[in-house]
Write a structure and sequence with these properties.
- By secondary structure, this protein is α+β, with helices and mostly antiparallel strands.
- It is built from 4 helices and 8 strands, in the order βαβαββββββαα.
- The strands form 2 sheets. Strands 2, 3, 4, 5 and 6 form a 5-stranded antiparallel β-sheet that branches. A 3-stranded antiparallel β-sheet has the order 1-8-7.
- Bound molecules: zinc ion (ZN).
- Residues 70, 72-73, 75, 124-125, 129 line the site of zinc ion.
């Protein structure tokens, strides 16, 4: 079920929502810059919504796990994203204004956006991961080649 807020209800009271959103419904469209993130588990959410004059204020918890490959050692691991203080403000009008369908507002796009923003570009199984020894060597050699090339360029630039 998409994460939806009933606006009519919200007019009379604050709303609490909790449940799970499948990766399918979340439609993260992983790949591209996130190609080391292979798949996502269900998102768990616990959200409160309240109405302000010109917006809806949302805050709550989001939890989701991803199957990743480490950017250094290519080992598969699970990356857990915990957003214990997730919050967003949805204005009723303007360029970022909410889209009301029937009497509902779908929170899924806001959740999707913030999760994508929070995903690491270079997921690491551990901050101190040293990578594969052989890979490290190749990387060092490439660095050296590159700096040699720069040295040559510098020489060439000298009058
Ligand atoms: Zn690693």
């Amino acid at each position: 079920m998409p994460v939806k807020i009933n606006l009519e209800k919200l007019n009379t009271e604050d709303l609490s929502l909790c449940g799970e959103l499948s990766a399918n419904e979340l439609q993260l469209d992983l790949g591209g810059t996130h190609d080391l993130i292979r798949s996502a588990e269900n998102l768990e959410y616990e959200i409160n919504a309240s109405k302000a004059d010109d917006s809806i204020i949302i805050h709550g918890k989001l939890n989701i796990e991803f199957s990743c490959e480490c950017a250094r050692c290519i080992r598969p691991f699970t990356y857990a994203m915990d957003l214990p203080n997730w919050a967003t403000v949805l204005p009723f009008s303007g360029a970022d204004g909410i889209r009301v369908i029937g009497e509902y507002v779908d929170l899924t796009p806001s959740i999707r956006e913030d999760i994508l923003l929070g995903l690491p570009r270079h997921p690491l199984c551990d901050e101190s991961c040293q990578g594969l020894a052989s890979q490290r060597k190749v990387a060092q050699e490439e660095d050296k080649k590159r700096s040699d090339a720069w040295d040559k360029l510098d020489e060439w630039k000298q009058p």
